[in-house]
Amino acid sequence: MSLHTDSLEHDLLYDARQVGVSPYHESAVLHLNGKAIYTDDIPESQGTLHIALGLSSQAHANILSMDLQPVKAAKGVVAVLTVADVPGENNCGPVLHDDPLFADGVVHYVGQPIFAVIATSHDLARRAARLANIEYETLPAILTAKEAKAVGASVLPPFNLVRGNPHEKLASAPHRLQGTFECGGQEQFYLEGQISYALPQDDGAVRIYCSTQHPTEMQMLAARALNVSTHKIEVTCRRMGGGFGGKESQSALYACVAAIAAQKLHRPIKLRLDREDDMTITGKRHGVYYEWDIGFDSEGHILGAHVDMALNAGYSADLSGPVATRAVCHFDNAYYLEHVAIHALCARTNTQSNTAFRGFGGPQGALVMEVILDNIGRHLGIDPLLIRQRNFYGHEDRNLTPYGQVVKDNVIDTLVAQLSEDCRYHERRQAVLEFNKHNTILKKGLALTPVKFGISFNFPAFNQAGALVHVYRDGSVLVNHGGTEMGQGLNTKVAQVVAHELGLTLDQVRCTATDTSKVANTSATAASTGSDLNGMAAQDAAAQVRARLTEFWATLQQLQPEDIHFAKGMVYAGSLVTPFAEVVEQAYLQRVQLWSDGFYATPGLHWDGIKMTGNPFYYFSYGAAVAEVVLDTLTGEWSLLAADALHDVGRSLNPALDIGQVEGAFIQGMGWLTLEELWWDKEGRLRTHAPSTYKIPAIRDCPEHFSVKLFDNQNVQPSIHRSKAVGEPPLLLPFCVFNALRDAVASTSNYTRQPTLNAPATPEAILAAVERAQHGS
Fold first, then answer.
1. What pLDDT was estimated at residue 657?
2. Which letter, b or e, does each residue of 60-96 get, where b requires 16 or more Cβ atoms within 10 Å of its Cβ?
3. Which of 116, 565, 645, 660 could form a disulfide with 625 if both were Cys (CB 3.0 to 4.6 A apart)?
4. Strand runs (DSSP E) across 68-205, as ranges?
């Protein structure tokens, strides 16, 4: 049916927009009613078997003998796999081939898989895995990055970036501070643990349902482990119950082992880790040990800087190289450093191989700079905010990063000025000082910290994406893209982009599971690029379909293509208004192609990993936050009284989702810096390996006043609808919480001593820092 109107209402097209608005998450209702399907919810095929892994009890040792007969004889056990049963490559390392699926003669950390038990139930497999008799020859173990640095143990050559003459400037600076600092790692603590479900297919092929951020990598590594061509492995992921980087590379072990068992036994195989095993086996955020040196003038302008970072890589390289690179590229944070030396070592330790975590090295690089700037402020008796503002990047000059990229879109000074005014920073600073003068037990602290975060993968080739858009005869649309949904709302945003491009309502568009048999050679959903890459690829595919429909309908109605408009599920052709589905049906009858593939590659990226120079980032995201804390100096306990954040996401695709991402990142980052302590005993056993011993933030840790606002801006680059990434950058916002705690500790000495407080700032660590501040050390 067609309708006639007097004229096309142009504001109708604006009102019909599907981006820049806030529909709820596409799986929100399913999450609420418990009907969302995760990997473990997939109905099990007949004959499904279950795997449990046999783990090392030694941090570093030779395996002298291994008696697995009790395991094989246990109830329900069907088979036991060791390194001898791997038909292809015994490796799941994403970059270097240094990460074995099963230990081969030597173990490198407590919890390293040595064998796999396949049994008729999950419980029976776990019970049987504990029955192995393994004899070890214990070897020396290194458990900290500081120890590894002292003996030169590393998984990769060191990274070095030098600009200008930092050592000369340090030597001649009117003021100079030096020190050390440490930040711990962090467990991803995704709600859904690591899991893979492998089903054998025809002709030696295997289909793997996997909770992973990188289906293509799982496909490639499983193919290598099975010694088959990549096209024989299909990997599917509908959704994850969280990832945070922990399922970028480290889901490979479980995908590979499940695939090997499925092929060997010709049975469906499920490998699901219990939480304790998950935390014991998998890698975390890299903890870092820093040695730093800063030179500055009497107004706080940085004249020279040097930092030496030792990242705890664990026993293998994993993604430590790219993580260290990003840490090097974010040491500057929002500040111009004309003379600087940055060194990073990926230290080899006998712990879990550390991996990606939200921020991917960026938080570790920028954190120490924010600590240093607060120290400069206290040393000079100047408000640290003023120190920061004096060192911000400029616009026409002072705008070149240490690695040689020009900062073209700098809004940090405007954003910080707006936040400080909105939250009454200077008034509250005076109130905090006044409070601390009259209180000896309770002390308050206040801090404002900014964020400048580069968006793109360090490796330029990863900055590409593909998508498929299928328009069906009833006008409904199915979208498949290479990104993965881990709760962040990527599928919602991509569906919004496609709906907007085709002039449809969101209920007419659906995103389906990520599948390597549909979009090939995909990049990981990581580096905050999910919406940027996959949104652009989906828009490209949808635009091709729209162009074909436009040409067809214009020809049929004897109009020009520019006279055809799509909005609210209708096609406007002059005064003729026709339902989209009717146009699609007529196009189908005339054999017009109603599906298309789309592709996008981020332009202008280049990087020299040897010289550590180039344009590694497409653009920068900015933000800032203010935190006010109160600290009990008798117990080390503290409370976050208020937090205000202003964050730049460009022209937001979905403001509600973006605000939620900022809120979540803030609390998660605060947990890393204050609560979440990873602790290994002297034998190398991770003792914080369960929710009972590893504490993440809870509702009581959230401030009563928590204000998050989006900064009014648009991306200087032609990103998807001029939006900016939101996943990782806001994790740096809670630096203000950590620095506010340091501010409160410093107040116990009337700001005459620098606080010696590392992260995480647990109550025990705070109490020790207060003692040192009051009495010296």
1. 98
2. bbebeebebeebeebebbbbbbbeebbebbbbbbbbe
3. 645
4. 77-81, 106-107, 113-119, 133-138, 159-163, 175-183, 195-200
* 324 contacts 187 by C-beta, under 8 angstroms: no
Which tokens is 700 given? 């009581």
DSSP 354-406: ----TTTTHHHHHHHHHHHHHHHHHHHT--HHHHHHHHB--SSSS-B-TTS-B
Q: Among 484, 479, 532, which residue's Cα sits nearest to residue 502?
A: 479
Q: Is the dihedral of CA 384, 312, 159, 89 positive or negative?
A: negative
Query: Is 677 noted as a catalytic residue in this protein?
Result: no
The helix or strand, by DSSP H or E, that contains position 534, with its residue range, turns out to be helix 530-557
606: exposed, middle or buried (C-beta count within 10 Å: 0-12, 13-18, 19+)?
Answer: exposed
Q: Which two tokens stand for residue 38?
A: 């995760």
* Of 161, 143, 299, 156, nearest in space to 678 by CA: 143
- Say how many CA atoms lie within 13 Å of 333 toward its Cβ: 26
AA identity, residue 618: Y
Transcribe 23-71 into DSSP letters: PPPTTHHHHHHT----GGGSPPPTT-EEEEEEE-S-SSEEEEEEE-HHH
Is a pLDDT exceeding 90 seen at residue 4?
no
Question: Pick from 768, 773, 776: which is nearest to 747 by CA?
Answer: 773
Q: Are 488 and 527 in contact (CB under 8 A)?
A: no
Asked if pLDDT for residue 774 goes beyond 80, the answer is: yes
Q: How many helices (H) and strands (E) does the chain have?
A: 20, 30
- Residue by residue, DSSP assigns 285-308 as PPPEEEEEEEEE-TT--EEEEEEE
- Nearest CA to 52 out of 113, 135, 93, 133 is that of 113
Using only C-alpha atoms, what is the Rg of the chain?
28
Report how far residue 141's alpha carbon sits from residue 315's, in angstroms, rounded to the nearest whole number: 10
Task: Specify the pLDDT at position 255.
Answer: 98
b/e sequence 711-744, b meaning 16+ C-beta within 10 Å: bebbbebebbbbbbbbbbbbbbbbbbbbbbbbbb
Residue type at 174 in one-letter notation: P
pTM, two decimals, is 0.97
Please state the separation of Cα 201 from the chain's center in Å: 33
Beta-carbon neighbour count of residue 588 at 10 Å? 14
* CA proximity to 228, closest of 256, 253, 199: 256
374-406: b or e for each residue (b if 16 or more CB lie within 10 Å)? bbbbbbbeebbbebbbbbbbeeeeeebbbbebe
For 718, residues 6+ apart whose C-beta sits below 8 A from its C-beta are none
State the DSSP string of 601-659.
E-SS-EEETTTTEEE--SEEEEEEEEEEEEEETTT--EEEEEEEEEE--BS-S-HHHHH
Alpha-carbon distance of 458 to 606, in angstroms, equals: 9
Distances (CA, A) of 416 to 184, 338, 374, 375, 540: 28, 22, 16, 20, 36
pLDDT at 9: 47
The half-sphere exposure of 129 on its side-chain side, counting CA atoms within 13 A, is 26
* C-alpha–C-alpha distance, residues 657 and 678, integer Å: 30
Where are the extended beta strands (E) located within 428-499?
442-455, 464-471, 477-481
Catalytic residue among 217, 370, 501, 728: 728
**Strand pairing category for 509-511 and 477-481:** parallel
According to DSSP H, which parts of 187-266 are helical?
A: 215-226, 252-265
| Residue 13 clears pLDDT 90, i.e. is over it | no
CB neighbours (10 Å) of residue 273?
21
Phi, then psi, of 159 in degrees rounded to 5:
-105, 135
Rounded Cα gap, residues 127 and 768, in angstroms: 43
Q: Tens digit of pLDDT for each residue in 354-381?
A: 999 999 999 999 999 999 999 999 999 9
3-state secondary structure of 309: strand
